[in-house]
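During the reporting period the student researcher (J.K.) took over the structure-prediction task from the postdoctoral fellow and processed the backlog of single-chain submissions. One of the processed entries is reproduced below for the supervisory committee.
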Amino acid sequence: MSSLDDPRSDLQADFDSLRPGDSSAQGATRRTALKAALGVGYAAATLPIAAQTAITTSDDGLQAGPISYTVDGFKVPAYAAAPSGKTGLPVILVIQEIFGVHGYIADTCRRFAKLGYLAIAPELYARQGDPRNYTEIPKLQSELVSKVPDAQVMADLDGALQYAALNGGDVSKAGITGFCWGGRIVWLYAATGKVKAGVAWYGRLVGQASENTPRHPVDVAAALKAPVLGLYGGRDQGIPLDTIDKVKSILATGSDAARISQFVVYPEAGHAFHADYRPSYLKAPAEDGWQRALAWFKANGVA
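J.K. obtained the following structure tokens:
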């Protein structure tokens, strides 16, 4: 199996982006303060990091916090944020990194809410386990992540939209964005016709088919029903540039949504360049990508 087909490749990229670790007492104090400030625990796997760059968005003027909704008899936990007292809000589904819905993902929801969105980040591994219980990347992959079926994820995202429709959201103006593991999910969900647009941050594009992951972005690109903006790093060791070129060529001859989809590659960026709690964070590409994402949603009816 080549690295391009190995589902562990983007997981390893996430692991690598956590380096260098900060084992000093000062670093531990920063990490503890960060967790308290964000109000949502970081996954154990992400703790050995230098977190001094993390951005914190207040919940002033927002209704923000844990929620749940039921899908096939299972209560799906999630984090949601929206402007207080507002209805008819455009909706953004925020899809977790491999490490789950931790503080950075919750903060991203609050950033969208400050701009007038209802943002929801479902815990998409909840049936299989809690990523916060893992400190070893191989075990996180083999015991939890690999057991999450794409079909389950798609159904839970459908459920999130149903929740949004009942709680102040206008799902005719829905979009989706996600990071790494969640970036791959963006491409898949954009092929369902349930959202108007997607923004995928460094999501894996190719992979080996399995029972739980029968298709990958390369397999659905031609049939997209919502345009996707792909934001990728030119130095991402887990996502070679030739896989981006492969998907580009497929998009060019695909559906209307496929043909207007775009990639932006930041030559100086590696994996997880938007993740402001990691050493991999790069301010300029992260901020440019964020502005492009907002413009993409607005241009495609998610505003």
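The committee noted the following: The longest helix spans residues 150-166.
J.K. will present the remaining backlog at the next meeting.
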